[in-house]
Amino acid sequence: MKTLKTLLTVFAMAGIFSAGALAQTPTNQTVQASAEIISNLSAGATSALSFGQILASATPSIAYNTASAGWAEFTGATEGATMDVAITYPASLTTTGTSGTALTFAADAGAGYQSTSGTADPTSATALASATSGSFTATSDGTNTDFFIFVGGSITDASAGVSGETYTGDITIAVTHQ
After folding, report:
1. Residue 80 gets which letter from DSSP?
2. CA atoms lying within 13 Å on the CB side of residue 5
3. Nearest Cα residue to 71 out of 81, 85, 59
4. C-alpha span between 115 and 22 (Å, rounded)
5. What is the dihedral of CA 161, 167, 170, 171, to 10 degrees?
6. Is residue 70 over pLDDT 90?
7. Among candidates 106, 96, 92, 102, which has minimal Cα distance to 164?
8. Residue 6: what are its φ and ψ, rounded to 5°?
9. How many CB atoms lie within 10 A of CB 42?
């Protein structure tokens, strides 16, 4: 019986001391949450990619880095932000006349950007990765972080057109902050 009492006393003492050993004081750590609000991009001026008057035998092409390139201006970029560009071209230019004909349009003359405010200058444009997409880092001229996207293209079958009719198609340029 004495052995049983001693054994029970030892277990009781071990339980008391081990309960304190199992309990641990929590260690706290803080993680800060932060966010920087950036401005929305705004669309500014545009200039059409205009082939002008062409002969039915012509296959005109306008490169993105020439004076005739089409362009769109965007304002409000954040300095150092990466701009993702996606460009959708029409498969054809359709007529505003009654013939119902279409001219095949090709997005084979590239696309580029100019990261500066002021006047659009396609001759100083830097090429995007492809005619349909690319990314670049917005830079500032000290005041603004505006930029221009330039597009080119070609008409591959002017002979399908009807003399006196005008043909048009929309090129959509989408730009987002990355």
Report:
1. T
2. 2
3. 85
4. 62
5. 60
6. yes
7. 96
8. -65, -45
9. 11
One-letter identity of residue 16: I
The span from the CA of 73 to the CA of 75, in Å, is 7
Task: Output the CATH code of domain 42-177.
Answer: 2.60.40
pLDDT at residue 173 in the model: 92
Cβ-Cβ contacts under 8 Å for 140 (sequence gap 6 or more): 79
SS (H, E, C) 42-107: EEEEEECCCCCCCCCCCCCEECCCCCCCEEEEEECCCCCCEEEEEEECCCEEEECCCCCCEEEEEC
User: 117-175, pLDDT tens digit by residue?
Assistant: 678 899 999 999 999 999 888 776 666 678 899 999 999 989 999 999 999 999 999 99
Triad 138, 63, 173: Cα angle to 5°: 45
